[in-house]
Amino acid sequence: MESYKSLYLATTETHCGKSLVSLGIMDLLLRRTQRVGVFRPIIKCQGSDRIDKNIDLLLKYFHLPWQYEETYAWRQIEALDLLAQGRHDELINRVIAQYKALEEKSDFVLIIGSDLSAESAALDFDINVELAQSLGSPVLLVARGDKANMDEIISPILMAVESFKRKGNQLVGSIVNRVDPDELHEVRRALRETLPEEAQPLAVIPADKDLASPSMAEVVEHLGAEVLYGKDLLNYRVYEYMIIAMQMEHYLERLRKWALLITPGDRGDVILSAIQAHASGNYPRLAGILLTTGVRPAPTVKRLLDGLPSTLPIVAVTQETFETARDLRQIRSYITADKQDKIAISLRLFRHYADTDALIQRYADIKPRGIPPRMFLYNIMQQAKADKKRIVLPEGDDARILRAAEALLMQDVVDVILLGEPEKVRAMIRRLGLSIPNDTPIIDPNASSRLQDYAATYYELRKHKGVTPDQALDIMHDIAYFGTMMVYKGHADGMVSGAAHTTAHTLRPAFEFIKTKPGFSIVSSVFFMALEDRVLVYGDCAVVPKPTAEQLAEIAIASAETAQMFGIEPIVAMLSYSTGESGQGEEVERVRKATQLAKERRPDLIIEGPMQYDAAVDPEVARKKMPGSRVAGRATVFIFPDLNTGNNTYKAVQRETGAIAIGPVLQGLRKPVNDLSRGCTVEDIINTVAITAVQAQHA
User: Fold this and answer.
1) Phi, psi for 320 (deg, rounded to 5)
2) Which CATH number, 3.40.50.10750, 1.20.1440.230, 3.20.20.140, 3.90.180.10, labels domain 516-668?
3) How big is the CA angle at 672 (ends 438 and 598), to the nearest 5 degrees?
4) Coil, helix or strand for 187?
5) In this predicted model, what pLDDT tens digit does every residue of 180-228 receive, in sequence order?
6) What three-state secondary structure class fits 469?
7) What is the Cα 215 distance to its own chain's centre?
8) 652, 680, 658, 676: which is closest to 666 by C-alpha?
9) 447 secondary structure, DSSP code
10) Three-class SS of residue 378?
11) Cα–Cα distance, 614 to 609 (Å, whole number)
12) How far is CA 183 from the centre of its chain?
C-alpha cells in the first residue's frame, strides 16, 4: 500500500510558533530526501509587493528550488472574498490544483496551514480542517504552552483533535511550543496523561526569550518611528519595555537587561544617563531609547549626542507615551530569512526537544485510507483533460445539460456534441445566458446526413432479431439510439444521457449493439461513494438483480478495474451476511464460490470473502472477526451479493452519512455509455461526463 508524501502543520490557535516547527520539520525532511516542497494553501500577506514570511524563510534558508508563486494558492483577502460570494468550491479546487502541481515535482511536501487571526480564528481553523482533508494529508498539531494553567494549554488541543477527526483527518501527533522552562516536565507529563494516542506530544519546546523578543528594527517598522541615532544597531533585541517618568537617580536602579526605555523627547537627563548606563559595566545593557510626543532633544543635548560614538539606538515617534506603550504590546517578532541567530536557536531547540524518531515512526504507521473526495474529482478532471474525448449528450434541450456543457467546454475537459434541433437549442443557450462556442456541434437526428447510414448499420446488427429496414430507420430517430450509434461508429467516444429519460431508455441501445468487451459476459455498474474522508466503490447497485457466482466474480473484477482506472487502490471485499467460514447456506456459498473464481481469474488482485460489511470497513471489527486479513478493515471496493442489498445499502449510506453517490457508472461495455438520474444536478452531469471520458481513454 502507498504511504503518504505530505504533512500538514495546523495551529490550534494564534501565535503558536509554527516558524520554529516548520524550520525543524524541513531540516528533518531534507536529511532524508532532497526534493521537498513547501506549500501554503492561503497566505496572509497583503498587497502584491508583500511576501509570506514562512515561505520566504524556508525557500531562502534551505535554498529550495521552487518559485515563490508555486508555493501558495490564495492570498487571504482573495479567499475571504470567495467565501463571502459562496464560491467555496472554486477556493478548494485551486488549492488542490496548485498543490498537485508542486507535488508532481517533489518527493515530499510540507504544507503549512492558514494563519489564525484573532478576528477570524474560528473561520481560519475550519478552513484548515477542510483543506487538510481535501489534500489527503496527515496533520501535525502545533499548540502554544504560554498559558496561565494546564487546562488552557490542553483544551485547544483536544478541540482541534475532535474537529480534525470528525472530518476524517489522520493525526500524527502534537507539538507544544513556548512552554515555561520551569514547567516543562509538568506540562509534558500532563499532555501524555490527557491527550489521546493520536495527539500524543512529539515535542514540548520551552519558550526562548531571544526568539520572542523583537529587534529594534521591528519596533521601528511597527511604530513607523524615525531613527535618530544608531541605525547600525537596530539588530539589538528588546526583552521588555520600561516607561521612564522618574528622576535619574531612581530609574537607574530599576534598569533591566535589554530594556527599551520609553520617555518624552524633552527628557535630556534620561537620554544622557541611559547612554552612560549602557556603556557602564555596572548597569545592564539596554536595547534602545524611544522618544515620544514628537518632541526632539534640545539643541544642546543634540549637539552632545552628535559628538558621541553611536552606542545605543535612539528612535522617535509623534504619539503620546502611553499610546506608544500600548502599540508596542502588539508587536510580534518573526523568524525571517535574514535573522540567522533566530534560525539557529530554532533549529537547536527543535533538535533537542523534538522526539524525531517517534515522529518518523508515527508518520510511517499511518496508512492512507483512500483518496479524498475533492482530490478524486480533481484527478478525474485532470485525467479527462490529458486526452480529450468527444462525448455526445442526447438531451441537448435540457437546461442542466447545457449548463454542464458550458462548464466542461470552458474548463477544456471534453469536446461536447449536443443532440437536438439546432435552432431551439441555440435559442435556449441564449435565453440561459450561456457561453457555448458557436462551433459546438448540435445535431438533429431527424435531419442528420448520417441517419440513413446509422439505420442501415442498425438493421445489419439486429436483423437476426426480426428488425426490418423501416423499423431500423424509425428507431434511429430516437436520441438514445442515435447517440449510442455515434459511439458505436466512432463519431463520438462516449455517451451520457438520462437527465430526462428512464434508465431503460438510455441503456437499451448499448445492451443491443455496443455489447460487452472481451472477457466479460455482463454489463454491471458501480457507484463511487464520496464519504467525508475517502472514496469507496460499491458494485453492483443498479443493473444485475441477482448475479450467479460466475457473474458476481465478473462484477468484482470489473469493479476492481474501474477503481484502479480512477486512482483507487482496489482492495475487494465480497460481502455476505456471514464472515469467513462461520456461515453456511446457498447465499453464502454463492459468494464464497464467486470469491474463488475471481481469485483464479485475477490472482494479482486483493480479493477476500465472504465477509460482513462491518468487518470490511472497520479495523477494530476486522481484528476480531478476520485477524490477519489483507482486506478486512481496509476494503476500498465492496461487492454486494445482489441488487436489492447493494441498492439499499448505497442509499442508506448516502442518507445517513451525507456521502455523495457518483454513478451509476457502467462497466463491461466495449465503449462507455452512462446513465444520469432524472433528478441529477449540473455537477452530477459534469462528473459523469468526465468519468465517461476517462473510460473512453481505456476503451
Assistant:
1) -70, 165
2) 3.40.50.10750
3) 160
4) helix
5) 999 999 999 999 999 999 999 999 999 999 998 999 999 999 999 999 9
6) helix
7) 36
8) 676
9) G
10) helix
11) 13
12) 36
Distance CA 112, CA 116 (A): 12
Cell of residue 643, nine digits: 441488487
In this chain, the answer to whether the domains covering 6-208+339-368 and 216-328 adopt an identical fold is no
At which residue does the C-alpha cell 544597531 appear? 233
Amino acid sitting at position 328: L
Q: Using alpha carbons, select from 204, 201, 194, 185 the residue that is nearest to residue 145.
A: 204
Residue 315's CB is within 10 A of a number of other CB atoms, namely 21
* CATH architecture assigned to 370-515+672-699: 3-Layer(aba) Sandwich (3.40)
pLDDT digits (tens, 9 = 90+) for 34-85: 899 999 999 987 555 578 999 999 999 999 999 999 999 999 888 889 988 9
CA distance 609 to 612: 9
Task: For domain 6-208+339-368, give the CATH superfamily.
Answer: P-loop containing nucleotide triphosphate hydrolases (3.40.50.300)
Per-residue pLDDT reduced to its tens digit, 414-431: 999 999 999 999 999 999
First to last CA, the chain: 27
Q: Which fold has domain 216-328?
A: 3.40.1390
On the question of a cis peptide bond just before residue 41, with omega within 30 degrees of 0, the verdict is no
Per the listing, cell 476517462 goes with: 694
List the domain boundaries for the chain: 6-208+339-368, 216-328, 370-515+672-699, 516-668
DSSP-derived letter for residue 215 is B
Continuous segment of H or E residues that includes residue 479? helix 479-489
Give the CA count within 13 Å in the CB-facing half-sphere of 477.
6
Q: How many residues make up the chain in this entry?
A: 699
How far CA 310 is from CA of 161, 229, 285, 314, 698, in Å, comes to 52, 7, 14, 9, 75
In the numeric block, the cell 453517490 is attached to 661
